[in-house]
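Quick one, probably user error.
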């Protein structure tokens, strides 16, 4: 009997046969996990399979949840043998007491129909009977998923317009049809394989690029409203693999999403904000033999991150959120610096600063306020030494009055900080914008297009009394934006206005012309139709 998960390996059921459930989902009901997926006979579609497990590792095959039946009709409204049934998703309707399954439906010859098949059952394992086959709201629908919200409303999300866009539509009260209003999202991004999940007030979406059976770097977006047409993502950076955008994978082979494509994100029962990424490692020459890539997914950083494990079990979630984000900097606070894009902690396993997984090499720092607002000295707890910028490199020195030991914590909208040295204007930065464990940190110019966002996190087992940031609430970013304005005003950030080719520097708030010199490292905004950052350097 299996006692762990080995991503990408052959995964046999309790009868000794390879699990044949692809592009599917997992549902937890009455103490059992139910795994639905495409049942394949080599490359041919053979209905929808169902497996059941008590422990999440060992799965017993049940009867098929959907069995092809009937004959092919000219109207293409059947689930007869020979039709292609893909990406089944199952949710429960409390009003009708029915289990509802939506499936991507094709005629079996090509992918030109782009429809959905909707089926229902009285029991979670089925059998499911077809209710209808159609194009939702008249739109072509290919890779698709369902999402059941905490308020009982259900949504259908799917690739459309020949995979150019993504549609989101709310379902009728019985979950059998879409309501007429739908949102066209992610226009022109050519995403597919959507997997939607929620933490607090935030909806997250994982997506794949459209590269056929070939792998590509997965991407994530987020929103506070599933029907909002403007999903968001952190600012794009040029990644070390040459891609753009933010990849939810952070280890080696992240450029191929660990040789997988997303199909579902499963919330782990009884564990808050703990999720399992479910992916398929497709074998286009024999889809039946495609492997399953399941991995833990964390949103500790505020964004989805999926690390690679050769082998893992559910205990990985026990301390996933032991480190929590501090509400705001405080005198004497003991904190860890968590890098945003990697979800890893600033560490020192050897002479250099690096980002690492949670472990013994993580550095704990003590914050000390200075007389300057928002400026702190950063003491390493273990040694009592202070972080200092010496000729643009980090050094650990005895406490002094040098400005080289003073660091401005520039608040960002998402609650992260850019940590800038007050003496020379350089910032703590990630080498090469990479996210792998062991990546070194260095000090770079504040305007460099490198990752410079770090969160202040505390060990909740050691400091249960520390106030935690409400980072998954809808109001969190709004309050941060207000705090950023207050910080800008307090430290005298200025605005630059272009006039006749000459820059004139004005104080924020009052709008008064600044006559005096400004120190190197002072940040200003340049308004030329769009906003960018600029650094004043004293001659």
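Nope, works fine. Designed sequence:
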């Amino acid at each position: 009997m299996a006692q762990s998960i080995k991503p990408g390996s052959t995964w046999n059921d309790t009868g000794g046969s390879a699990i044949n459930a692809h592009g599917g989902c997992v549902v937890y009901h009455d103490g059992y996990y139910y795994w639905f997926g495409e049942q394949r006979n080599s490359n041919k579609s053979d209905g929808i399979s169902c497996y059941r497990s008590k422990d999440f590792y060992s799965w017993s095959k049940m009867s098929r949840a959907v069995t092809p039946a009937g004959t092919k009709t000219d109207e293409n409204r059947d689930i007869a043998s020979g039709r292609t049934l893909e990406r089944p998703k199952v949710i429960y309707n409390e009003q009708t007491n029915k289990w509802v399954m939506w499936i991507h439906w094709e005629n079996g010859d090509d992918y030109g129909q782009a429809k959905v098949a909707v089926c229902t059952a009285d029991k979670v394992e089925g059998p499911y009977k077809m209710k209808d086959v159609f194009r939702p709201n008249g739109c072509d629908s290919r890779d698709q998923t369902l999402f059941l919200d905490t308020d009982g409303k259900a949504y259908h999300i799917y690739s459309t317009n020949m995979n150019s866009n993504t549609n989101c539509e709310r379902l009728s009260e019985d979950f059998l049809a879409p309501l007429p209003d739908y949102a066209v999202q992610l226009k022109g991004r050519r995403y597919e394989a959507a997997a939607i999940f929620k933490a607090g007030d935030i909806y997250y979406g994982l997506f794949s690029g459209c590269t056929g059976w070939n792998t590509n770097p997965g991407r994530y977006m987020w929103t506070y409203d599933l029907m909002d047409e403007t999903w968001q993502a952190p600012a794009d950076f040029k990644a070390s693999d040459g891609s753009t955008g933010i990849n939810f994978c952070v280890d080696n082979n992240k450029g191929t999403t660990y040789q997988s494509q997303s199909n579902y994100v499963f919330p782990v029962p009884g564990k808050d904000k703990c999720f399992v990424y479910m992916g398929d490692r497709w074998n286009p020459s024999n889809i039946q033999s495609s492997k399953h890539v399941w991995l833990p997914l964390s949103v500790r950083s505020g964004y989805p991150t999926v690390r690679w494990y050769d082998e893992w079990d559910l205990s990985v979630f026990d301390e996933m959120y032991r480190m929590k984000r501090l509400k705001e900097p405080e005198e004497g606070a003991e904190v860890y610096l968590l890098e945003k894009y990697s979800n890893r902690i600033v560490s020192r396993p050897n002479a250099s600063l690096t980002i690492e997984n949670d472990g013994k090499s993580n550095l704990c720092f003590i914050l000390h306020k200075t007389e300057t607002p928002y400026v702190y000295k950063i003491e390493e707890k273990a040694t009592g030494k202070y972080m200092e910028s010496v000729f643009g490199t980090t050094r650990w020195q005895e406490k002094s009055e040098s400005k080289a030991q003073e660091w401005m914590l520039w608040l960002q909208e998402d609650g992260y900080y850019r940590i800038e040295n007050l003496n020379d204007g350089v910032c703590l930065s990630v080498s090469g914008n990479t996210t792998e464990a062991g990546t070194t940190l260095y000090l770079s110019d504040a305007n460099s297009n490198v990752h410079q966002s770090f969160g202040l996190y505390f060990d909740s087992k050691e400091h249960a009394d520390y106030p935690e940031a409400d980072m998954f609430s809808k109001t969190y970013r709004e309050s941060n934006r207000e705090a950023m304005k207050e910080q800008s005003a307090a430290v005298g950030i200025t605005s630059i206005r272009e006039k006749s080719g000459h820059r004139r520097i004005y104080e924020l708030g009052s709008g008064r012309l600044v006559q005096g010199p400004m120190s190197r490292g002072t940040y200003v905004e340049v308004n030329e139709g769009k906003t960018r950052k600029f650094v004043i350097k004293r001659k």
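Residues 476-490 form the longest helix (15 residues).
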